[in-house]
Amino acid sequence: MDAFFKISRRNSTVGTEVIGGLTTFLTMAYIIAVNPAMLSQAGIPFSAALTATCFGAAAASIAMGLIANRPLALASGMGINAVVAFTLCLGMQLDWRVAMSIIFLEGILILILVLCGLREAVMCAIPVGLRHAIGIGIGLFIALIGLEGAGIVSADPSTLITMGDLAAPGAIVGIIAIVAAVVLTALNVKGGILISIVAATICGIPLGVTVLPTEFNFGLDFSTLGAPLQNIEGGGMAIIQVFMQPILLLFVFSLLMSDFFDTMGTIVAVGQKGGFVDKDGNVENVREILLVDSGAAALGGLIGASSITTYVESTAGAAEGSKTGLSSVLVGILFILFAFLAPIIGMVSSAATCGALVVVGYLMMSEIGTIDWKDITQAFPAFITILGIPLTYSITNGIGLGFISYVLIMAVTGKAKNVKPLMWVASVAFLAVFIFT
Predict the structure, then answer these.
(1) Could you report the per-residue pLDDT of 267-283, keeping only the tens digit for each?
(2) By the 8 A CB rule, do 255 and 106 touch?
């Protein structure tokens, strides 16, 4: 095991990888309950969506661990599942199998781009300052997600965002989680972030935030398997319907852009904490990582789990010291186990993981000193990226705004020749997405 995963060579231990894997799993395990609930709105049986979610995440995470050997866990992506449920199925009245066909096709297209080397080439074309900015912006984003999940910050019609009710049970649990995570991290306690999640979950029981399970579902339902190849009522095979409605091809392109750049930002962010990004922002094993991630997107559509993607919550495990794919394999095994015991994961509230996400956000801010703030051609696009990711609540949107501002400022300052061609292509593609979708 040590030799295969290169644990000692990367200055890690089996214990550290286990703690990192557990931490990552707990911070992303909400998807076990959330994804089936959302997909059930699209007409997919809840039990089938639950089975697909767990086994899809398990297969993708284990593949990442074995093929890329990096601490990156995968599961059905939030955002795209909402597009499937509310835009494609409820809004456009598409059969859920047709929606999954769209997901399957965009995954296949991304996989082709990886095999052609284009996805890796785009990553290499991104300026160093922007690569660091993506990680910083994601750090702020996940900290915001943590605070919002606990109700410490909330929406406001007048100011957009404001402080929440700190006396509310969820906020109290969130504050406990933050204090525990900060104190344990400051004291260099091994597994401190994981301990903060467990402690906050326990504290949430008397406050009514942690809901104890009353029943267990041991059944599995694989009826969504092969969704694009299934026949829909009165229409034949589902995947054929995508090509019969040209507007659906626009969704394939739009979702491709989202998957393409969300993952790019995520692996840079996790890599910065996991130690597999060099000083120039280059990600080690990037081809293998992108290959697995792209295949996972197609897998999600094929099994009816929505697009499966690399999770930014993997930064929590990396912050605990995970450096190898062993932690990802553990995450995959846990997803399989909890396919039978989903109610237990329901005990871990978003408030309980608040501390983990806030501390990870703080740790990711360390990259801000690597940006040359005296050079506006590099600093302003970095600033827009850092600002855009949390404020638009989208990694892809933030990256797009950063790309567009970079090529524009380089053009008007007479430095257009220094912009790599793929940056121009990507910026034009982002502009088209912003305008037309």
Answers:
(1) 888 888 888 887 777 88
(2) yes
